[in-house]
Amino acid sequence: MADKSADLEHKITFDPSKNVTFKPVPEEQLRDLTISNTYNQSVMFKMKTTRPGVFKMKPVFFALQPNQKKTIKLHYSGCPDGVKLNLKDRFSVIMAIVPKDAPTDWDVEKVWEDQKMQVELADSVKRKVIRIHYEGYEVPTDPPEKSEKKSKKKKKGATKEIIDEKNEKKVEREKMAAAATANALAQAAGQPQPFPHVQPIVYIVYQGLPPKGLRMEGYGRELSMTDCIPCRGTGGQVNN
Fold first, then answer.
1. Distance, CA of 238 to CA of 231 (rounded, Å)
2. How far apart are CA 160 and CA 167, in angstroms?
3. What's the whole-number average pLDDT of the chain?
4. Position 151 pLDDT exceeds 60
5. Phi, psi (5° rounding) for residue 178?
6. Cβ partners under 8 Å of residue 221, min gap 6
7. Which H or E run contains 221?
8. What is the arrangement of strands in the sheet containing 126-134, beginning at the earlier edge strand?
9. CA distances from 80 to 102, 112, 223, 225 (A)
10. In a 3-state reduction of DSSP, which class is residue 29?
11. CA 94 – CA 104 distance, rounded (Å)
12. Count H helices, E strands: the chain?
């Protein structure tokens, strides 16, 4: 399935494309943001901002037909004396391809809020950030949110792989231990070893204590000291 949001990223243009500049003074200011749709489909938009009480956009909801453009009025109420600037202020433009099921007399705001349209909108939703540049101050670099999410997702995936690998190794060790124990029990009973390719496990018995909790399916009992395989350094004799 084609990534429609990737198409929008290159087919919708903004002027200015990155920052809009305001003066950090206690007076109202107005700036223009022109959005053009060079895509072959109609696109709907929704304007947002980090501080709705300070910044206003008009219009907030609108749609553009192919090869159509619109100028959005960005209003700044000004910065009162003594108030610290938030250099991370920004406008966000949320855009998506108009759903095919949208009614002929559709209202952009209602379509954005219509839950039935959410699935179709999700395939093409894209967000464009326009940073607010306060004159005399540098615009801080916005952390790459998507890169961080991908990095976290990748890290999470890598962690899961490590855990899975450890679990697999643990399961493999348990299988080998079970096979070796089965061989030991069979040998003690004078029967052929069921897993001749498995190396025997060496149980070290301390102070005459038998290994704890060793149990094999099919045998239905815990191993006793007589089931221990000869330990290294004991001359091949079983501790008893």
1. 7
2. 10
3. 77
4. no
5. -65, -40
6. 215
7. none
8. 19-22, 126-134, 90-97, 43-49, 61-64
9. 44, 35, 82, 85
10. strand
11. 22
12. 4, 9
53, two tokens = 């009480």
State the Cα–Cα distance between residues 161 and 153, nearest whole angstrom: 12
Compute the distance between CA of residue 48 and CA of residue 37 in angstroms, rounded to an integer.
19
- Give the span between the Cα atoms of 3 and 98, in whole angstroms: 15
Q: How many residues does the chain have?
A: 240
Task: Report which residue type is found at 161.
Answer: E
Candidate from 44-53, 168-177, 204-213 with smallest mean pLDDT: 204-213
Residues 94 and 111: beta-carbon distance below 8 Å: no
Please say whether the beta carbons of 11 and 37 come within 8 A: yes
Strands 55-58 and 29-37: unpaired
Amino acid found at 1: M
The pTM (predicted TM-score) of the whole model is: 0.57
